[in-house]
Amino acid sequence: MTQPNPAKKLQDFGKELVEQVHKGSQLKIDIPVRALSNVQYNEKTKTLQLGNKSAERLFFNVGHVKKFVQTLEVAKVSKQLLDLAKHASLRDVFYMAKRTLPGTNTNLVDEQTETDKAIEDLELVTEFSREQLNINANKNGSVAGRVIVEDKGDTIDWSKLGSGGWSVPSNVEEITFSKVSAKYVLYMEKAAVWERLHEDRFWDKHDCIIMCSQGQTTRGIRRLLQRLNSEHKLPVYVLADFDPWGFYIYSVLKFGSINLAHISESLALPEAKFLGITADDIEKYGLHKHLIKFKDVDSTRIKQLADYDWFKKNKAWQRQFQMMKSFGAKAEIQALSSRGITFISEKYLPEKIKEKAWLD
């Protein structure tokens, strides 16, 4: 079976534009719309999917031309990287594209957000992820467990990497698993919580893998979680703050994100479970005095979450949203430390997992 070729796809993209020139027609690129209005929740797959709406980007349009050229520029950079079999960071691509157009005072790009968006457009045009286009983001995450992987010819044992664990790369597609000994994967949004569990050797005592980022998950982490779930049938449990942002992190992991709905198939985890913390934990462990009062932005965000199609019919989640609203407050995972520094690893997590006290 022929493997998809991103370099050929980029070449075909260029040829299509050349054909438009030869025909004397308007130079244009059709780009699918990345917005909630063009995202649908698929009840069957339990993931977000991009709809059929697209927008024309025209070269001979003063409002479109800059983004049009930026997209072509990052396509050129990606093609060069693929031809050289080299990878570049998002920041590298920004500097490779940054220059003043000859005979003008206009810069092709002024901020990295411009090249980042052009790269996302290129993903939509080519149907390849930025990692497949040899463009990577920064590393942001750690993992530990009884797992051995092969990465670029190196053998790496996740159980023998000291206090820092293995730093999860942006691109995990070429990693192969030599050995995986675990019953489940525990993902947490906070590095501080991961460090607590790692120091307590939670992964060793409970035969699991622990993984974290710092806030919203990177694509590398999401893809690694999905590979462990799909290739090794490991359940994935999510540990996040009791706040609208922690709930959103879970939502992105499980269903996919609005901006990346076009690659939900390779990132989403429909079987992921939310382990905590929950409103019930606040009640059960007497954490009321550790609640943090809502700001207006929190109230607005929880209303938005409750109205998402993928949460609307879920009674368990609507109950959590209502209880959070009634508290008028949120709580951090670290509030559990008020019960003892090792409470989370010795009592909270083992009991919740044993009792299957999670949210789906």
Walk me through the structure.
- With 360 residues, the chain is α/β, with parallel strands linked by helices.
- The chain has two domains: 6-136, Arc Repressor Mutant, subunit A (Orthogonal Bundle); 142-355, 3-Layer(aba) Sandwich (Dna Topoisomerase Vi A Subunit, Chain: A, domain 2).
- The chain has helices at residues 6-23, 65-84, 90-97, 112-126, 191-199, 202-205, 219-232, 244-255, 264-267, 279-284, 296-307, 309-312, 315-327, 343-355, and strands at residues 28-32, 39-42, 47-50, 54-58, 88-89, 135-136, 142-144, 146-151, 154-157, 166-167, 176-181, 185-188, 209-212, 236-239, 273-276, 292-293, 329-330.
- The strands form six sheets. The chain has a six-stranded mixed β-sheet, with helices on both faces. A three-stranded antiparallel β-sheet has the order 9-8-11, with no helix packed on it. The protein has a two-stranded antiparallel ribbon with strand order 1-4.
- The model has no long low-confidence stretch (mean pLDDT 93).
Brief summary:
The chain has 360 residues and is of the alpha/beta class. It is 42% helix and 18% strand.
Topology:
Blueprint: H1 6-23, E1 28-32, E2 39-42, E3 47-50, E4 54-58, H2 65-84, E5 88-89, H3 90-97, H4 112-126, E6 135-136, E7 142-144, E8 146-151, E9 154-157, E10 166-167, E11 176-181, E12 185-188, H5 191-199, H6 202-205, E13 209-212, H7 219-232, E14 236-239, H8 244-255, H9 264-267, E15 273-276, H10 279-284, E16 292-293, H11 296-307, H12 309-312, H13 315-327, E17 329-330, H14 343-355
Parallel strand pairs: 5-6, 12-13, 12-14, 14-15
Antiparallel strand pairs: 1-4, 2-3, 7-10, 7-13, 8-9, 8-11, 16-17
Helix pairs in contact: 1-2, 2-4, 3-4, 8-11, 11-13
